Amino acid sequence: MPALSKLTLVACAAWAACTLVPPAAAQTAASGRLAPLVDEIYPRLEALYQDLHAHPELGFQETRTAAALAAQMRALGFEVTEGVGRTGVVALYRNGSGPTVLVRTELDALPMEEKTGLPYASRARAQWNGSETFVAHSCGHDIHMASWVGTAQALLALKDQWHGTLMFIGQPAEESVGGAKAMVDDGLFKRFPKPDFAFALHTDPMAYGYVGYRAGPMTSAADGLEITFKGRGGHGSAPHATIDPIAIGAHFVTDVQTVVSREKNPFEFGVVTIGAFQAGTVGNIIPAEARLSGTIRSYDPAVRRKLIDGVRRTALASAASAGAPEPELHVGEGGVGAVVNDAALVQRTVAALQAQLGADHVVQVPPITASEDFSVLGENGIPSMFFVVGVSDPKDVAASKQPGGKPLPFNHSPFFAPVPEPSIKVGVRAMTTAVLSAMGAKH
């Protein structure tokens, strides 16, 4: 690990790692010093990353994580407010008049067991839906948080290069797509300045060193479905005396796919997934109820409405065809819209990223079919940009593309293991560059 003779370290009682205060000399650095500056601060970001990785927390339970990031930002001189949207963090730094630029990171991890074998792998457990589960940062939010802190440090070291207000938010519960709304409902844009621009990054299993972007839809809308089909239970030997909710549910699972294949334009993205089907206790009893849950995903609002309506209609028809009572439907409630990147902001930012990282390392990518509640910020009228940062070894990426090659572990895989140093360094350089570009957008 390189010597840190030029750095001032401030210990934090609630945190295993230390926080970093940029030295006065670094604060006058020109923007061309960004890469060596990131090299200088990286050792502390690595310690932060490993600690966050080893101590993940689930959505709205991120008390240790939020306290750690709050301590980091206070040590840098940010004004920090905790408990926004339950466990969210808002950190402000004012540097004269200019745009307010928001940078978001997520705080939460996933209810799953990590199987990477890393020396700092998580063995954490927590309560989730009434039972104990392993917890792991298998979506890369720990990379995001380390990059977030590093971006704050870099921007303060370069604060003679920009004027305006930094608004760094640590958002809870992204995985359940409820955290952004919770922060907005708790006054995110009333208690604090409403940003002129907003940015977020996400890990991607492409090769490290690369940044992916696109204008327009970047992630899909996601809507949940929870359906309880009601029947009349009885003995398995006498199905004629019952109304079988399992048969109704099975018909629904099959029939609902015709909404996707026959009612939606095949050139427009949309998918309905049933992820859980729960009914019965033993093989010789027909139960009285069958509960199904799943997701509906789309990019276009019109397609989103069509799919939601089609799921409802198919569920009602499935029950009616069996002479069953009307099912209990919760479809499209509490969903989240697609992340739609602002075209003008993307154009400016991409030019800056290409100058910083090299044009061949900033690539346009197709829209992502997964979903993200960063969309909530754009829906509040804030021009925003969500981009991805590669985290995989280029040799592994190349090997995976060969015939018979081993697929790369993707986000949410128990084997998902970003290569920390190049991933975090590029994350910091990319996000710092994006913010600097936005700060100059109004000048």
TrEMBL record:
Family annotation (InterPro entries): Amidohydrolase, Bact_exopeptidase_dim_dom, Peptidase_M20, Peptidase_M20_dimer
Start and end residues of each Peptidase M20 dimerisation domain: 224-310
Swiss-Prot/TrEMBL keywords: Hydrolase, Signal
Keyword Transport listed: no
Signal peptide (residue range): 1-26
Domain of life: Bacteria
Keyword Membrane: no
Name under which the protein is recorded: Amidohydrolase
Organism from which the protein derives: Comamonas terrae
